[in-house]
Specification:
The structure is a single chain. The protein is built from two helices and 24 strands. The chain has helices at residues 143-148, 291-298, and strands spanning 6-15, 24-27, 31-35, 42-43, 56-61, 64-69, 75-77, 80-82, 84-86, 92-95, 101-109, 130-132, 164-172, 175-182, 184-187, 194-195, 206-211, 214-219, 227-228, 231-232, 236-238, 243-246, 253-258, 261-264. The strands form four sheets. A seven-stranded antiparallel sheet has the order 8-7-10-11-1-2-12, with no helix packed on it. The chain is elongated, with a radius of gyration of 21 Å. Residues 116-120, 133-152 and 268-299 have low confidence and may be disordered.
Length: 299
């Protein structure tokens, strides 16, 4: 007998402590507790004292989820302090003013048997979160090797973008969008599945699709603007874990974490590598590490 669909709540950490930033956490059940207390489902470090031990709860009511604030310093949804509010996909939750931020997303799952969740008893911990960590970044290649590589990773015109059931989650700014079927179009046109208002994008700029067991990106501009790891892809190319995907030399810039997850990368102006007027490509010797890596090295 087919099981009724259940709802998985997903949090994507978009701002906060280095160990959590960029990670995703998923939960099932009628109640999700948030705070510093060890028994909380979504738990923050004990040194973040502006977050209460029992900071907030999310209660499932039918197919809706209600956020209840139980903190001293407040819980904010899309920048507004709340006491109780029903959440919707893409909402940004902030715990304490200026504190960690996560995007809220729900996903229906067919045929999944939800585990029975008993009320939390004193001295017993509930089922803890499952955190998917990004695949560690590989060290950059030496400049000489970068210069020798061909600018196009792989021309693969024989791979067609057929409809496929494959998950895709895109985090851009404070919002997250989730797709269950590919391909999708990205561009400034409202007719695109993922409309993105960015000055460097055309109306129908790029396409992401799933074929032969992996994710692909296709450049629809005809100008070789879409790049992977700062190198033009030409027509289309596969996405591999930890790839940097730039939709144009001026951005926006994403990292592909694998398993259909794209997260925006913020790049400060001083880290944008100037292009050589002769080749139109970034000069390897002028490349610099990202601001996130600088923070890690300093810590």
């Amino acid at each position: 007998m087919k099981q009724p669909p259940v709802i998985k709540v997903q949090f994507f950490h978009i701002k906060g402590p280095v160990p959590l930033s960029g990670k995703e956490a998923g939960f099932y059940g009628p109640l999700i507790s948030i705070g510093r207390q060890p028994s909380c489902h979504l738990r923050f470090s004990s040194d973040l004292t502006y977050i209460s031990r029992q900071h907030a709860e999310i209660l499932r009511e039918g197919n809706q989820f209600k956020l209840i604030d139980r903190s001293t310093n407040g819980t904010f949804v899309n920048g507004k302090r709340v006491t109780e509010v029903f959440l919707k996909d893409g909402d940004v939750l902030m715990f304490g003013e200026g504190g960690p931020q996560v995007s809220f997303l729900t996903q229906m799952e067919e045929g999944f048997v939800e585990p029975e969740v008993s009320p939390v008893q004193p001295g017993r911990e509930p089922k803890r979160e499952v955190v998917k960590e990004p695949i560690p970044m590989e060290p950059p290649l030496p400049p000489k090797r970068l210069q020798e590589e061909k600018p196009i990773r792989q021309e693969a015109s024989e791979v067609s973008a057929q409809p496929a059931k494959a998950p895709l989650i895109i985090q851009y700014g404070p919002t997250i969008r989730s797709f269950k079927q590919l391909p999708i179009l990205i561009g400034k046109s409202p007719q695109c599945e993922y409309p993105l208002n960015h000055p460097s994008l055309s109306d129908q700029h790029a396409q992401i699709f799933f074929s032969e067991g992996q994710y692909w990106v296709k450049d629809l501009t005809g100008q070789k603007l879409v790049r992977i790891n700062r190198q033009p892809i030409g027509f289309q190319a596969p996405l591999r874990p930890n790839d940097e995907l730039s939709l144009s030399p001026q951005g926006p810039l994403f990292r592909f974490f694998g398993e259909g997850r794209l997260g925006e990368i913020e790049e400060s102006p001083e880290e944008r590598v100037p292009e050589s007027p002769e080749t139109g490509k970034a000069e390897p010797e002028k490349r610099s590490i990202s601001s996130k890596l600088k923070k890690i090295f300093k810590s």
